[in-house]
Amino acid sequence: MPSCLSNGGRMKTWLLLACAGVVTGCYDPASFVYGESLDGLTLQFHSPDVGIYPDQSVLDDPNNPFRSSTPGAETKWDIESRAGNVAAFYSWATLLAREPGGEAQFYVGNNLLAIYQNGEARQEDLPQVRLQAIRAYQTMLDSFPDAVTYDATGTYAYDLATPAYKGIVEMEGAVQGGWVLMSTAGGGDRAVRP
């Protein structure tokens, strides 16, 4: 996927490969759609449930640079690692609205946590960002309890319940639904619902 990166590693501009499906099952050749700068985005909640499954209001959010196109399988990771927390939030929330899944819900929560910790929203909105992060993690536990994500090689999967549980606790929230954190034989932690 082509992209333009500054020396600081921040994604300045993104190019999105878009394919248009045709009713007959064929599709037009891919074309490049030029986007806008992802630097300096400020989180502004368009609705009270934005980024929380099954809400789809992010697709109508004028602040969402991805509202008219969905980040691809590799592009979402480029955005996650290089474009900043607010852009990553919008990317994952868009993916969640279009293709619901636990990985997207988890990363919505993860980016909201980072936005809160880094003060990347208006000061008066930070308490709402905190609560939205807790809701995102809890929704992942409730709606997608078996969700996994993969390492950089795409071969090793790990569960997302444990980091979602820990994210709620880190945000000083109360984990709901009977989830508990257990110690594993290897000395690690694992969130389970007995």
Structural class: alpha+beta
Order of helices and strands: EEEHHHHEEHEE
List segments where confidence is low: pLDDT < 50 over at least 5 consecutive residues: 1-34
Report the sheet-strand fraction: 5-15%
* Tally of helical segments: 5
Given the C-alpha coordinates, what overall shape results? Answer: globular
Per DSSP E runs of 2 or more residues, the count of β-strands stands at 7
What number is the mean pLDDT? 83
Keywords: Lipoprotein
Organism: Myxococcus xanthus (strain DK1622)
Protein name: Lipoprotein
Task: Give an account of the 3D structure.
- By secondary structure, the protein is of the alpha+beta class.
- It has one domain (57-192).
- Helix content is 35%, strand content 15%.
- It has 5 helices and 7 strands.
- The chain has helices at residues 75-82, 85-98, 102-118, 126-143, 161-170; strands spanning 3-5, 11-18, 31-34, 148-150, 157-159, 180-183, 189-192.
- The strands form 3 sheets. Strands 1-2-3 form a 3-stranded antiparallel sheet. It has a two-stranded antiparallel sheet with strand order 4-5.
- The chain is globular.
- The protein starts with a strand and ends with a strand.
- The model is unreliable at 1-34 (pLDDT under 50).
What are the defining features of this structure?
194 residues, globular, 5 helices, three-stranded antiparallel β-sheet, alpha+beta, two-stranded antiparallel sheet
